[in-house]
Design goal:
heterodimer; A: alpha/beta; five-stranded parallel beta sheet; 7 strands; B: alpha/beta; Rossmann fold; 2 domains; seven-stranded mixed beta sheet; five-stranded mixed beta sheet; 11 helices; binds thiamine diphosphate; binds magnesium ion
């Protein structure tokens, strides 16, 4: 894949697959037979979809970063280095399932099918998308994406309620949301997860442990080992390698199966690392505060680079008649163009469709124009079997 | 001039609103061992806005506590420590997050002295206010949520000097104080701090400008909007009083009534939304106690009842500005 020296973390600029890193990647695949079976069953479309999804996420973030440099935006919250955990989770779901991404999980939005242009529009505050410029956090009920609020942890009880409603309506849907290591310390996470536990709700909470909460290392805010946290609630805990998209996908599939069997909720711990700042404004600070070796070791484990290498080295062809490397390059080319086009569409909206100050008071309450249908439509039967992503 | 030390006659360095708060806390920590700070990322990171920058190095991890993202625990622990005679200064990373500590503040801390005689000398401080396109969860003004809670004090400075003097007074106060810092002012205003231990007592408003035709009562960043409006009005020959409340609870009724009595016309200006905002309470006080001095309706200039919108055109329409204030003033003056 193409690297972007102006935007990539320095560790990624000349990224090369190191033998020990790739050995570890392969070893993880055979560590658990059930996960190995899930991976063995993946179609080539699915395998390519994972690659595509992670690239889309990376390039989405690079676009935001470029806009910050250009002064189009003042800040952006990026998922650089954490793409596998979001993308792997979503690709284990079905279209009818529900996700509640935080801002660092933007990849969940596009992998659930939201157009990239709409994600960019939300950032730019344009009027022609779901928030009408009123909020930067976005989502799309028709695609099962719940818009978050800034408050970390708050989605856990809310997603528990969505899982509850789905069950009450007789729908076989799973709800999945993310908390950071930091967010897992909120009262709302605890109350929400426990609520889900006593009701055995089909809820997956991915604890995305990236080693840091804003400017505070995990060990400063948490003494316990997250691995067994589910036991405190009487539920299953699963762990996965958050930089290994196949391990994330397989672990999430296990969690989904537990939820569909009525054995939810599940706490899925994914260990990963934030390769930048909390947002674009404090990257230098993050590097000053956190040990350089963390960036170095995690930098060797670029989730996209590792997966790309694994796909390239795979014996079976992704598509007949072409080298895997070539197929991946074509995917990259397609995604780059898609991201560029989405960004351009959003910039056009910024030129033509900024909200009018006179609309300020609209939308606080329902009007007769508002639909009386539930915002999150009942599960369409056709959606139960389909893959969630795009 | 040769031989003359550069500092002689040079003005004292100016301090930003942000550094004034930092300095105030720092001085109280130097002076009183029971003062300590706690909050998210306040240690090595120095806080999201850097109000606690350098404190970890100077005072160590026992007095500069990095906490988990647990606002109820931050405030609850501050309450417990305060009951033991400590003077905690708890930071909310953005004041909006105080919502997560609502029970601790309103039910535990605020009622403690009344219920049991046990004082809770704690400060909860954090950045409030909009104007930086930070959207509905990082632009809030939360004073009205707490206005109806007996037992709390609330402060919002509008100048660097006040920020310094009021944070010190808040830390020394025997009761719980919510201290709202306007993030727009953090680095945008600065002034010389008077040397020495300038404490500014809680409960005292400040006259920023004295006039005869009209009074604007405000606080926080809106004081600067009021002053801008006042100078625009001056060009039309209107003389305006600007009263800066500084302490929002308890209110300085004396200063409020004196200003109204002098001008007979009053505008209440704030950045928090309209319904149930502080303006309604001020209007009631004025109507009850200064009715005979009024020669026009009491007007409120506030944002409408919507969440704080993210997008620039919407937020610009949301926030009061000098234009909306002068328009209200003209209406009132014509009355
Ligand atoms: C309740 C609450 N308190 C404080 C904040 C401010 N804040 C935003 S993100 C963040 C750190 C989150 O860390 P973590 O949950 O580990 O997620 P990460 O940013 O590492 O992805 C903090 C403290 C918030 N958003 N919500
Ligand atoms: Mg984290």
């Amino acid at each position: 894949m193409k690297r972007y020296p102006a935007y990539d973390p320095p560790e990624y600029v000349d990224w090369k697959p190191e033998p020990d890193v790739m050995k570890g990647f392969t070893a993880t695949l055979s560590r658990e037979p059930r996960r190995a079976a899930v991976v063995a069953d993946l179609s080539t479309d699915k395998l390519m979809g994972l690659y595509e999804g992670m690239l889309r996420f990376r390039l989405h973030d690079i676009t935001l970063k470029r806009w910050v440099r250009q002064g189009v935006l003042s800040k952006a919250w990026l998922g650089t280095g954490e793409e596998a955990v979001t993308v792997g989770n979503v690709h284990a779901l079905r279209a009818a399932d529900l996700v509640g991404p935080m801002i660092r999980n933007a990849g969940a939005c596009h992998e659930m099918g939201m157009p990239l242009a709409d994600l960019f529009r939300a950032y730019l505050g344009t009027a022609d998308q779901i928030t009408h410029g009123r909020d930067i956090h976005t989502g799309d009920p028709r695609r099962g994406v719940v818009p978050p609020i800034s408050f970390v942890g708050s989605l856990v009880p809310v997603m528990a309620g969505m899982a509850l409603a789905a069950r009450l309506r007789g729908e076989k849907r799973v709800a999945l949301t993310w908390v950071g290591d930091g967010a897992s310390r909120t009262g709302e996470f605890h109350e929400g997860f426990n609520f889900a536990a006593v009701r055995k709700l089909p809820l997956i909470v991915v604890l995305q442990d990236n080693g840091v909460a804003l400017g505070t290392p995990t060990r400063t805010h948490t003494r316990a080992d997250f691995t067994h946290l589910g036991a405190a609630y009487g539920t299953a805990s699963l762990t996965c390698d958050g930089n290994h998209v196949l391990d994330v996908l397989a672990a999430t599939s296990q969690a989904v199966a537990l939820c569909r069997e009525g054995a939810g909720p599940v706490l899925l711990v994914a260990k990963t690392f934030r390769m930048g700042g909390h947002a674009t404004h404090d990257e230098a600070e993050a590097r000053a505060i956190f040990p350089a070796r963390l960036f170095k070791t995690w930098g060797r484990r670029d989730p996209i680079g590792m997966y790309e290498t694994w796909l390239e080295q795979r014996q079976q062809p992704l598509m007949g008649g072409r080298e895997n490397r070539q197929v991946l390059a074509e995917i990259e080319d397609k995604v780059s163009r898609e991201v560029e086009a989405g960004a351009q569409e959003a910039l056009d909206s910024r030129r033509d469709s900024m909200p009018d100050g006179r609309s300020l008071r609209e939308g606080v309450f329902a009007t007769s124009d508002d639909s009386t249908e539930p915002a999150f439509p009942p599960c369409p039967v056709s959606a139960t079997g389909a893959a969630a992503h795009r | 001039m040769e031989g003359v030390p550069a500092t002689v006659g040079a003005p004292l360095p100016e301090t930003t609103y942000l550094d004034a708060i930092r300095k105030g806390i720092w001085e109280e920590m130097e002076a009183d061992e029971s003062v300590f700070v706690l909050g998210e990322d306040v240690g090595a990171y120095g806080g999201a806005f850097k109000v606690t920058r350098g404190m970890l190095d100077r005072f160590g991890p026992d007095r500069v506590l990095d906490t988990p993202i647990s606002e109820a625990a931050i405030v609850g622990a501050a309450i417990g420590a305060a009951m033991m005679g400590m003077r905690p200064v708890a930071e909310m990373q953005f004041i909006d997050f105080i919502a997560c500590a609502f029970n601790m503040i309103t039910n535990f801390a605020a009622s403690s002295r009344y219920r049991t005689g046990i004082g809770v000398p704690m400060v909860i401080r954090g950045p409030a206010g909009g104007g930086v396109h930070a959207g509905p969860f990082h632009s809030g003004n939360v004073e009205a949520f707490f206005l109806n809670t007996p037992g709390l004090k609330m402060v919002q400075p509008s100048t660097a000097r006040d920020a310094h003097g009021l944070i010190k007074a808040a830390i020394r106060d025997p009761d719980p104080v919510l201290f709202f810092e306007h993030k727009l002012l953090y680095r945008h205003i600065k002034e010389e701090l008077t040397p020495g231990d300038e404490i500014i007592p809680l409960g005292k408003a400040a006259l920023r400008r004295q006039g005869d035709d009209l009074t604007i009562i405000s606080y926080g960043a809106m004081v600067h909007t009021a002053l801008k409006a006042a100078s625009e009005l001056e060009n039309d020959g209107v003389s305006t009083t600007v009263l800066d409340l500084r302490t929002l609870l308890p209110l300085d009724n004396e200063a409020i009534l004196a200003a109204v009595a002098r001008t007979g016309k009053v505008i209440l200006l704030h950045e928090a939304t309209r319904t149930g905002g502080l303006g309604g309470e001020l209007a009631a006080i004025i109507a009850e106690e200064a009715f005979e001095y009024l020669d026009g309706p009491i007007l409120r200039v506030t944002p409408p009842d919507t969440p704080v919108p993210y997008s620039q055109p919407l937020e610009d329409a949301f926030l009061p500005n000098a234009g909306t204030v002068t328009a209200a003033a003209r209406k009132l003056l014509d009355y």
